[in-house]
């Protein structure tokens, strides 16, 4: 996978995360709303940075879909928290691929984004995964 | 993938060196002396392989140091087991993953001995954990952050697949530091 392909995949995942956090924000319990808003803003910032990255790599940034299919129906605050954790897991997966496909500053940024996603995932879930972003080591 | 590529290069370098040894007496028919460019490429491949092996050792050592802190904390504070044991298991998995393929497994006969061949090679006993459980958790969180920082620093110069692994392990370390400090409910 080229750095451009990996950056496009990360951008697409950030588009989906921004959309997903819109759903999370609508359903999450009041005491966790600030956390959801902070995550939403973080993903928007990463999305904007990735648009620049894709352009820098000579590509045309992937655009967001009008809507995304959610992995499950989010009907209550508990569902919102579960969705937030899934969004972070998915983002972590594309950033680990971007780390592999890139070097230098972009690799450093991808690693930072993976770290932030992993921390948010445990905040939502309350428990850890041993290898965030590595689907082949998930068990 | 890249490791295999480097190994292939190394093998090529070794056979080029062998050719150099036997090649000096023959002219034409025998093995050809490697060109200066080939010798330089073989030296470069060896240098890269050595640097990569050193990076892998440092990365595994960083996780091993963290694992020792987990063991010390669990030894001093059995009551922390529910909270800390899963993180300790993850740290052990990190050590294994980061040292995968480093060296051939020791032969059973050599590994079965319980006494180390020389007392001087026995590792120093790890520092005990703080007596206060809260202080022990704080120390563990700091150790997890330290390891995460070390892995983050190493991944910039690592080969692609290993960099991906290091980024994941670094992310896990940051997440563990969170769970050890603020994630009290976990």
From TrEMBL, chain A:
The family database entries (Pfam families) matched by this protein are listed as:
DUF4439
Cleaved signal peptide residues: none
Gene3D superfamilies according to UniProt: 1.20.1260.10
DUF4439 domain residues are 6-136
Checking InterPro entries in the record gives: DUF4439, Ferritin-like, Ferritin-like_SF
**Protein name according to UniProt:** DUF4439 domain-containing protein
List the top taxonomic levels of the source. Bacteria, Bacillati, Actinomycetota, Actinomycetes, Kitasatosporales
UniProtKB/TrEMBL annotation, chain B:
Q: Which domain of life is it from?
A: Bacteria
Show the PROSITE patterns listed in the entry. PROKAR_LIPOPROTEIN, TAT
Q: State the name under which the record lists this protein.
A: Lipoprotein
Q: Which organism is it from?
A: Streptomyces filamentosus (Streptomyces roseosporus)
Record's InterPro entries? TAT_signal
Composition-biased stretches, type Low complexity, lie in 108-124
Q: Where is this region: Disordered?
A: 23-45, 98-133
């Amino acid at each position: 996978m080229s750095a451009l392909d990996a950056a496009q995949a990360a951008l697409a995942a950030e588009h989906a995360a921004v959309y997903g956090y819109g759903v999370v924000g609508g359903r999450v319990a009041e005491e966790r709303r600030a956390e959801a808003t902070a995550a939403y803003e973080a993903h928007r910032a990463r999305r904007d940075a990735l648009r620049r990255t894709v352009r820098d790599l000579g590509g045309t940034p992937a655009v967001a879909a009008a809507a995304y299919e959610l992995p499950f129906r989010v009907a209550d605050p508990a569902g919102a928290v579960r969705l937030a954790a899934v969004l972070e897991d998915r983002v972590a997966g594309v950033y680990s691929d971007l780390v592999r496909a890139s070097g230098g500053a972009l690799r450093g940024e991808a690693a930072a984004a993976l770290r932030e996603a992993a921390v948010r995932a445990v905040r939502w879930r309350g428990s850890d995964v041993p290898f965030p972003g590595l689907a082949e080591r998930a068990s | 993938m890249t490791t295999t590529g480097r190994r292939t290069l190394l093998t090529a370098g070794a056979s080029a060196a062998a050719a150099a040894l036997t090649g000096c007496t023959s002219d034409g028919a025998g093995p050809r002396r490697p060109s200066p460019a080939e010798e330089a490429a073989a030296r470069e491949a060896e240098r890269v392989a050595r640097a990569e092996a050193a990076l892998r050792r440092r990365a595994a050592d960083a996780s091993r140091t963290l694992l020792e802190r987990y063991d010390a904390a669990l030894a001093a504070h059995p009551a922390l087991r529910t909270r800390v044991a899963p993180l300790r298991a993850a740290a052990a998995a990190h050590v294994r993953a980061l040292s995968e393929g480093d060296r051939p497994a020791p032969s059973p006969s050599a590994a079965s001995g319980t006494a180390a061949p020389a007392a001087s090679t026995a590792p120093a006993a790890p520092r005990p954990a703080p007596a206060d459980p809260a202080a022990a958790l704080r120390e563990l969180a700091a150790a997890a952050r330290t390891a995460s920082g070390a892995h983050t620093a190493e991944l910039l110069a690592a080969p692609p697949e290993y960099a991906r692994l290091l980024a994941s392990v670094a992310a896990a370390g940051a997440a563990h530091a969170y769970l050890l400090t603020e994630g009290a409910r976990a």
